[in-house]
Amino acid sequence: MKKIVLLFALILSMAGYTYAQKYAYVDTEYILDNIPAYHAAQDQLDKISKQYQKELETLHAELDQMYKDFQAESVLLSDDMKRRREDVIVSKEKEYKKLQRQYFGPEGDLYKKRESLIKPIQDDIYNAIQEIAEQGSYAVIFDRSSGMSMLYTNPKYDLSDQVLQKLGYKN
């Protein structure tokens, strides 16, 4: 989407229609670095992630131990007992994978927590940028921290500090 907007802006500028347009940019990475609530949310997410990872590592260690014990004892076990132990190991592996998806999957607990903590901050930033764009009559505001390449930026067109002020933060 950002590439389409950039391409559209370039096409318009080549056609000579941008003589009255105003452009600016922001650095959302810089803005987020200056918002204490974002750092608190990131710290909370890191703690949750470490807790989930530790739980999964413990379960994985149990699974490894079960597999090693099975290999060591398989010579002494009957076929029926081997199948039972294999079923228990397979069941434990499924449990591990399910828990992994539950915690770290695309719709997992960590994703949902990130949505609840980070998205409101991002929405506030977006709304502040939108207000500044409307007040300043900007046609396009680019994000310097995204993957889009900006070879040169004049600091006088950087609205990042204005966004922070609009959000009530000092830079």
From TrEMBL:
Instruction: Tell me if rRNA processing is a UniProt keyword of this record.
Output: no
Q: Which Pfam families match?
A: OmpH (PF03938)
Annotated coiled-coil positions are 38-102
> Which top-rank group of organisms is this from?
Bacteria
Its signal peptide is 1-20
Gene Ontology CC: one annotated term: cytosol
The UniProt keyword set, sorted, is:
Coiled coil, Signal
Kindly state a single biological-process term from the GO annotations of this entry: protein stabilization
Q: Which GO terms describe its molecular function?
A: unfolded protein binding
Under the heading SMART domains, the entry gives:
OmpH (SM00935)
Family per record = Belongs to the Skp family.
Protein name (database record): Membrane protein
Q: Which organism is it from?
A: Prolixibacter denitrificans
